[in-house]
Design brief:
about 190 residues, Ribosomal Protein S5, domain 2, four-stranded mixed sheet
Length: about 190
């Protein structure tokens, strides 16, 4: 059915995620406005149904909330994909955002890995620390069991660069989870 509901509660965060790979409602609430904007863009551009309810220790900073949302969202993708049969497996995409150009490539391989090539001139966008972009993507990739490469080709505005990354990852994931007529796309016969 390509859906998953995941929850995670720690002393630092309380997170619930509902995911449908084939579309549906989108509702995001993390307490970090820019992060909500990025997750909303990820869902819309990926064509995913996604609800995220996250309460975190934002009096400390956004790190625990952002990383833990990545963990829970990654686990939701892993469960929704099941044995990964019948999917395209690979996806790559470029997204231009005004002066910035972002790229993402994904392999739903069962082998978690992240390559992140981006440096931001601004340390914050709203209440979001730009360094948390990499933390989110690492948590997401490792818990989804995917190999994810992202990079900023060029840009100056961190808002545009980060939004480009989230949209590029969304489109790459949309392509990779697309249903095909094939079984498991691997010479090994399993992922």
């Amino acid at each position: 059915m390509r859906t998953s509901v995941q929850k995670r509660k720690t002393k630092e965060t309380d997170i619930a995620v509902s995911l449908s790979l084939d579309g549906g409602e989108v509702s995001i609430s993390t307490g970090i406005g820019f992060f909500d904007h990025m997750l909303n863009a990820f869902a819309v551009h990926g064509g995913f149904g996604l609800t995220v309810e996250a309460v975190g220790d934002l009096t400390v900073d956004g790190h625990h909330t952002v990383e833990d949302v990545g963990i829970v969202l990654g686990k939701a993708f892993a469960e929704a994909l099941g044995d990964k049969s019948g999917i395209a497996r690979f996806g790559s995409f470029f997204v231009p955002m005004d002066e910035a150009l972002a790229f993402a490539s994904v392999d739903i391989s069962g082998r978690p890995y992240l390559v992140f090539q981006a440096e931001f001139e601004q340390e914050r966008v709203g209440e979001f620390d730009t360094c948390l972009t990499e933390e989110f993507l690492r948590a997401f990739a490792f818990n989804a069991g995917i190999t994810l490469h992202t990079r900023i080709e060029y840009g100056k505005n961190a808002h545009h660069e980060i939004e480009g990354i989230f949209k590029a990852v969304a489109h790459a994931m949309r392509l990779a989870v697309m249903k095909t007529s094939a079984g498991i796309l691997s010479t090994k016969g399993s992922l």
